Amino acid sequence: MVDSRLMGDFETEVKELEADSWSLTVDKKYLKQLKKDVIKRQDVIYELIQTEMHHLRTLRIMSDVYSKGLLTDLQLEGQMVEKMFPMLEDLLELHSFFFSALLEKKKEGKLEGTDGFIINRIGDVLVSQFSDFNAENMKKIYGRFCSRHSEAVNFYKELHARDKHFQAFIRVNKKMSSSVVRRLGIPECILLVTQRITKYPVLLQRILQHTKDLNNLISEGSCDSEECSDSCCKFCKL
């Protein structure tokens, strides 16, 4: 399995999001025409999209490499795999949808004649993701996942200590699929997922910081943007 297969439906986007920042993806002459706040805002939006891609990749490593491998290669019972990877399918669905919505904004902002893009409005996507039903759903999914964090890691350790087949499975996957797994073991994947939810408030606040003085607000009104950020901060504290 190679990385393009793991992220197959997003293969093109993966390649387009390899740069360290948005500033490095657009023509230098075009960049000089923009105000500093515009550039900083685009850099943060790019960071949001890029890190969401990385997060989705981690979830797919958990699903396509580890979870499926444990079910097919080691023939573990579904309940045991669920114990190690709680709410995994729900997380995949949630973040696949969010990443797709972000990519749609990226496509809408494509700069003619180049591979670059600029996103003028992103507030509708953020408000949709971090308020009302979607916010409650996200809170529920992450609440269950994070509450089972210790149990999942302890179960992994117990299985690794007593099951030689499990030890071999982990060793082979980390070695043979290093380009995909990126040296992420199961405990590392679980930790990264629990940490992701804490990143959103910071990213949203940084987008707002570089948006308020611009004509093109990230949504139809700054109040929606504030609502989005407030909603995100509230459920991330749970």
TrEMBL record:
Highest rank taxon of the organism: Eukaryota
PROSITE patterns: DH_2 (PS50010)
Pfam families, per database record: RhoGEF (PF00621)
Matches recorded under InterPro entries: DBL_dom_sf, DH_dom, Rho_GEF
Subcellular compartments: Cytoplasm
Molecular functions (GO terms): guanyl-nucleotide exchange factor activity; MAP-kinase scaffold activity; zinc ion binding
Example of a GO biological process term: regulation of Rho protein signal transduction
Main location: cytoplasm
Gene Ontology CC annotations of this record: actin cytoskeleton; cytoplasm; membrane
Phosphoprotein among keywords: yes
The keyword Zinc is assigned to this record: yes
Keyword annotations from UniProtKB, A to Z: Coiled coil, Cytoplasm, Guanine-nucleotide releasing factor, Metal-binding, Phosphoprotein, Zinc, Zinc-finger
Residue span, DH domain: 40-217
UniProt xrefs under Gene3D superfamilies: Dbl homology (DH) domain (1.20.900.10)
Name of this chain's protein: DH domain-containing protein
Natural source organism: Cyprinus carpio (Common carp)
